[in-house]
Amino acid sequence: MTDLKRLPGAFDHHWNWQLAAACRAVDTGLFFHPFGERGQAHDDREEEAKKICRGCPVRAQCLRHALEVREPYGVWGGLSEGERAELLDRARAARAA
Question: Per residue of the chain (97 residues), what is the pLDDT tens digit?
């Protein structure tokens, strides 16, 4: 579950980046896997989502948001939930070292 304490609040300037997101014109189902999706179907859908992210003008802001609030599901900023978890784990390990 998203940690709501990490959200910056309801001020528009915190969220305006979303208005320029490439995904706004795409079915959100592309970015979040349906229950039971596995294998090639999962990989193909995720790759399609990441293709949209690659051309997105606000990709960095999206990824920053997902990392800050620990978005648990979906493709955000071009990374899957597993890729984001790995990135956070590496950052945590680097801080501990």
Answer: 566 666 655 555 567 899 999 999 999 999 999 999 999 999 999 999 999 999 999 999 999 999 999 999 999 999 999 999 999 999 999 999 8
Q: Is 21 annotated as a binding residue?
A: no
Tell me: is residue 20 an annotated ligand-binding position.
Answer: no
Q: What pTM, to 2 d.p., does this model score?
A: 0.81
Is 7 a known ligand-binding residue? Answer: no
Q: Is 56 annotated as a binding residue?
A: yes
Where do the domains of the chain lie?
4-96
Tokens of 64: 């920053």
